[in-house]
Structure formats: C-alpha cells, structure tokens
C-alpha cells in the first residue's frame, strides 16, 4: 500500500477544495494508496506536521492550496529533509508554479500525476535562509498577493489582486537599489523587481520566456522607473512577450543575486510576506522532487 499525506488549506482560492476530500481519498484508495489529511491553520503548523509524519509519507506528500501553501510545505520539507516527491493540487487564487507544471483545476489529472509515480527534480530559490519555489520580489504591486483580504480573494479571485494593484499605482515612488548578480553590478531607480524560477507570475505566462525550473538559474526582471502611461504600455506588451525588449526592462539570469536598498523595503516570497531588504538570493538544485504528468 502506498502511503501519502495531504496538507490542504481550507481557505485558499474559492475555499472549495475541502468539499472534495472524499474524491481524493477514493482516487488514492482505488490506486492502492492511503492518505492522512492535515488541515492548515496558522503559520508554522505545517512544519510540525511534516516533521511528525516523516516516517509515514513514504510514497509522497500532497499539497492542496495556492502558491502560499506550497511555499510553506516546501520550506517544511526542505528544513525537515523530507525526500519524497511533492504532488501539487492547485486550489489557490493564482497557482503559478502548478500552472507552469501544466497542473490545472482537474483534480483527477493532478491525482493521476501522483499515482503515476513519475517525478522530476526542480530548482528552488533561497533568500536569507528561507526557500521560495516560484518568485521573490519587492516594489510596486509585489505586496498585493500577501496584503489582499482572504474573504475578498475567496469571492473575487484574481480580480481582487488586480483592483488592489491598480489602487497602488498613483502613490508609488521608485526605489534606489544596488543589485549584484553573479558578479555584475546594477545601480538603478526601479519600480519593482522579480526573481523568478518558473517565469509564470501573477498568472502572466510570459514574464521571463527563457526561464526554466531546472537550469540552476533564476531570472531577474527589473522594471525601471517610468511614468504610469509607460507602465500601462509595458503591462499590455507582456501578453505578446515584447516587454523583454522594452527600454524600461532589464532581464538577466543568475544563480546568486544580492539586492540592497537604502530604505527598509518589504519583500514577497511566493505571495507571502518575506524578509526586509537586503536579500541574499541563491539557487538550490537537486533538493526538491515534484510529481509530473505522464
Ligand atoms: N485555516 C486557515 N485559516 C486562515 N488562513 C489560513 C488557513 N490556513 C492557511 N492560511 C493562510 O493562507 C495563506 C496561503 O494561501 P494560498 O496562497 O495558498 O492561497 P491563495 O492566496 O488563495 O492563492 P495564491 O497564493 O495562489 O494566489 C497563508 O498566508 C496561510 O497562513
């Protein structure tokens, strides 16, 4: 019998995943599996559960939630040296990393990836001692994911993010940053930066077209200071991938990135509140396995 644990966030996305637990149990049992479910509550309880369930979850660890829940789970797995594949059941608002893996809202499809037993190794990022799976960022729009009210997210979904983001535009000032990326130094007035693993962030699929989740590198995308009309133009050019060529954008790939700013700026890691700048970011390879579609 294959043994799994399932960590699920009851309030992620539209808060509906919890009504489908029976389907998950039925699917896994039909494939000779047994699962212990764990309902997330407060920050930190995931790590305690992962530590205690270590000897049980020999076939895999499953997570149902959004990018924030996956973030907590991978941090717990890596801190506790849990070396089993991770199965992602996307049920959050954006689910960027899962979308990059082509895991959609089809529950049976995600479970098929788990019971199929095929996995791949993916990179993770590390910033000031904490792991991130998809993105570390700071500046304009980057606090939106962790500052939007959960109830609003449950009802409006992604629109809640977009409304909140639009509200930030008129009052935002640029940040003076110094960035060192694999020995190259950049001094710029910027609106925001994103350090990406998959390149799929905020449901925009093409933010870093060259990004790969197993190349040992992270993709740094900087939006330099510009006017609101220029920013809006940039925003629309993302859909065609033309933003990369814009004079307001700087894009590079690096394995080690150090970002500092004169002000105490907050960062965001996978949609959760991250540490204040400065950020010492590096790529960690060959530490995390994820189930993949066959
Ligand atoms: N039982 C709970 N009640 C309230 N909040 C919870 C509970 N369990 C987890 N959380 C919080 O939910 C947040 C993570 O949500 P998650 O990011 O997975 O979903 P989302 O915000 O809907 O999706 P996404 O990040 O993909 O846009 C974390 O901040 C975590 O502390």
Task: Report what the structure shows.
This is Diacylglycerol kinase. Its cofactor is Mg(2+). Pfam families: DAGK_cat, YegS_C. Keywords: ATP-binding, Kinase, Lipid biosynthesis, Lipid metabolism, Magnesium, Metal-binding, Nucleotide-binding, Phospholipid biosynthesis, Phospholipid metabolism, Transferase. The structure is a single chain. α1 links the parallel β1 and β2. Strands 5, 6, 7, 8, 9, 10, 11, 12, 13, 14 and 15 form an 11-stranded antiparallel beta sheet that branches. Strands 2-1-3-4 form a 4-stranded parallel beta sheet, sandwiched between helices. 42% of the residues are buried. It is 27% helix and 35% strand. It has helices at 21-30, 45-53, 67-79, 96-100, 107-116, 144-147, 150-156, 158-168, 228-237, and strands at 2-8, 33-39, 60-65, 86-90, 119-127, 130-132, 135-139, 175-181, 184-196, 218-224, 249-254, 256-261, 266-269, 272-276, 279-291. α7 packs across α8 (158-168). The chain has 2 domains: 2-117, 3-Layer(aba) Sandwich (Rossmann fold), CATH 3.40.50; 130-285, Tumour Suppressor Smad4, CATH 2.60.200. Adenosine-5'-triphosphate is lined by residues 9-13, 40-41, 43, 65-69, 92-95, 145, 153, 271-272.
């Amino acid at each position: 019998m294959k043994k799994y644990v399932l960590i699920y966030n009851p309030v992620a996305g539209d808060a509906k995943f919890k009504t489908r637990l029976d389907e998950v149990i039925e699917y896994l049992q039909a494939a000779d599996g047994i699962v212990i479910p764990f309902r997330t509550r407060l920050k930190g309880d995931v790590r305690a559960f992962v530590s205690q369930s270590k000897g049980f979850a020999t076939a895999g660890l499953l997570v149902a939630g959004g990018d924030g829940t996956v973030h907590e789970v991978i941090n717990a797995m890596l801190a506790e040296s849990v070396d089993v594949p991770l199965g992602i059941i996307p049920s959050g608002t954006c689910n960027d990393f899962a979308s990059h893996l082509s895991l959609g809202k089809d529950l049976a499809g995600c479970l098929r990836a788990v019971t199929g037993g095929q996995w791949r190794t993916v990179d993770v990022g590390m910033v000031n001692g904490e792991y991130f799976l998809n993105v570390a960022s700071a500046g304009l729009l980057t606090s939106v994911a962790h500052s939007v009210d959960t109830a609003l997210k449950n009802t409006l979904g992604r629109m809640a993010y977009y409304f909140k983001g639009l509200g930030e535009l008129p009052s935002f000032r640029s940040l003076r940053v110094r960035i060192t990326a694999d020995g190259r130094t950049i001094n710029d007035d910027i609106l925001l930066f994103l350090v990406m693993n998959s390149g799929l962030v905020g449901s925009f699929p093409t933010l870093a077209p060259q990004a790969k989740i197993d190349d040992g590198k992270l993709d740094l995308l900087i939006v330099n200071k510009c006017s609101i009309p220029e920013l809006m133009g940039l925003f629309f050019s993302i859909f065609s991938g033309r933003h990369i060529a814009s004079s307001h954008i700087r894009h590079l790939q690096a394995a080690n990135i150090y970002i500092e700013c004169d002000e105490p700026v907050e960062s965001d890691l996978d949609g959760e509140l991250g540490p204040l700048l400065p950020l010492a970011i590096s790529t960690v390879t060959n530490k995390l396995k994820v189930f993949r579609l066959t």
